[in-house]
From TrEMBL:
Keywords: Glycoprotein. It comes from Silurus meridionalis. Belongs to the CLN5 family. It catalyses: 2 1-acyl-sn-glycero-3-phospho-(1'-sn-glycerol) = 1-acyl-sn-glycero-3-phospho-(3'-acyl-sn-1'-glycerol) + sn-glycero-3-phospho-(1'-sn-glycerol); 2 1-(9Z-octadecenoyl)-sn-glycero-3-phospho-(1'-sn-glycerol) = 1-(9Z-octadecenoyl)-sn-glycero-3-phospho-(3'-(9Z-octadecenoyl)-1'-sn-glycerol) + sn-glycero-3-phospho-(1'-sn-glycerol); 2 1-tetradecanoyl-sn-glycero-3-phospho-(1'-sn-glycerol) = 1-tetradecanoyl-sn-glycero-3-phospho-(3'-tetradecanoyl-1'-sn-glycerol) + sn-glycero-3-phospho-(1'-sn-glycerol); 2 1-hexadecanoyl-sn-glycero-3-phospho-(1'-sn-glycerol) = 1-hexadecanoyl-sn-glycero-3-phospho-(3'-hexadecanoyl-1'-sn-glycerol) + sn-glycero-3-phospho-(1'-sn-glycerol). Pfam families: CLN5 (PF15014). This is Bis(monoacylglycero)phosphate synthase CLN5. GO terms for biological process: lysosome organization.
Length: 346
């Protein structure tokens, strides 16, 4: 099988090289996960660092979005440059997922979407910045099980969207639109450069946070990478740039948890699905995801989550896909949980 090298940057700053098209040898895959998921002492690092890449790959033509990604944003993802002396207001934005279609329905389950707003005092223009899925949430949470290829096929990319205007009604009606601080035009321009870098290296969406239990001292095995995490990273960057942020309301955010014992690394597409001795494992993974095909309808997606809940409770098994690799999660009570917990501004 041909091999294509792709540099990755781990959260601890180390650079490693992985194979975009993996070899058939399981030992090589094990070696790759060791250098990407263990520290210099040879011990497993939890949570597993989110793998960053040096470029964003093009989307596969098979992946189609029900709603186009960032339809009014700049096609090249450019963010306007502000005068250094400008005063930019920063707004915290939050609304129920798919509020435009279902109103406050998903808000009742605390399934919220988060974004950040900016307003220039110099030009009077305001802007919205958010990070979300290119092909809707279902495609990022579950893969397609296709007849023409053996491995599950993932349509999973997430990206930042920046566009002019803040839809006050959209954010205020069932959610939050609150000014949380001010920054200078110079700070905004520095933030814009960071957003571009963050967006180019963090290419895929992760719905789940995986923990050992709901307790305060639990171990986090894997972190989510979603709209709220982008907002948190942006707030932290603003704080490093000298911004003073504060809110008069409690800053709560949606988290979707899986609970399991210590995960077991299984391998990537090549080491599992191109390896005859692992034929049974490959079949089990396909069977597991066959019940949870991605759905474009949010109503169908909720039904899928309910089905997933029943499956993991009965079988106590979840095949988890992270960093383009598969892990086995030995699930345990309470299995799956949606929380709406406070994350203070930095």
């Amino acid at each position: 099988m041909s091999q294509v090298s792709l540099k990755t940057i781990n959260q601890d700053g180390r650079q490693t090289t992985v194979l975009a098209h993996a070899c058939n040898t399981t030992c090589l895959s094990c070696f790759l996960v060791l250098i990407s998921s263990q520290n210099t002492n040879g011990r497993r690092v939890w949570p597993v660092p989110y793998r960053r890449f040096d470029r964003r790959p093009p989307s596969d033509a098979y992946c189609q979005a029900l709603y186009p990604f960032c339809p009014t944003g700049d096609p090249d993802g450019r963010i306007p440059n502000m005068k250094d002396s400008d005063v930019i207001s920063v707004f915290r934005l939050q609304t129920p997922v798919w509020e435009f279609k279902y109103g406050d329905l998903l808000g009742k389950f605390h399934i919220m979407h988060d974004a950040i707003g900016f307003a220039s005092s110099d030009t009077g223009r305001n802007y919205t910045m958010e990070w979300y899925e290119l092909f809707q949430l279902g495609n990022c949470t579950f893969p397609h099980v296709r007849e023409d290829i053996l491995p599950p096929f993932w349509c999973n990319q997430g990206a930042a969207c920046f566009f002019e205007g803040i839809d006050d009604v959209h954010w205020k009606q069932n959610g939050t639109l609150e000014k949380v601080g001010e920054i200078s035009g110079e700070q905004f321009n520095n933030l814009a450069r960071w957003v571009k870098e963050d967006n180019e290296t963090g290419i895929y969406y992760e719905t789940w946070t995986v923990r050992s239990d709901p307790g305060p001292n639990s171990t986090t095995w894997f972190d989510s990478y979603d709209c709220s995490q982008f907002v948190h990273r942006t707030y932290r960057k603003l704080a490093k740039l000298g911004a003073k942020l504060s809110s008069k309301t409690q800053t709560n955010y949606t988290k979707i948890y899986l609970y399991s014992g210590e995960p077991t690394y299984l391998g990537d597409d090549g080491s599992i699905f191109d390896n005859p001795p692992l034929k049974t494992l490959a079949k089990d993974i396909r069977k597991f995801y066959h019940s949870f095909q991605p759905h474009q309808s949010m109503f169908q997606f909720i039904l899928s989550l309910i089905e997933a809940y029943e499956k993991v409770v009965l079988e106590k098994t979840f095949y988890f896909f992270y960093n383009f690799e598969y892990w086995h999660l030995p699930m345990k009570s309470p299995y799956i949980q949606i929380t709406y917990e406070e994350v203070p501004l930095p």
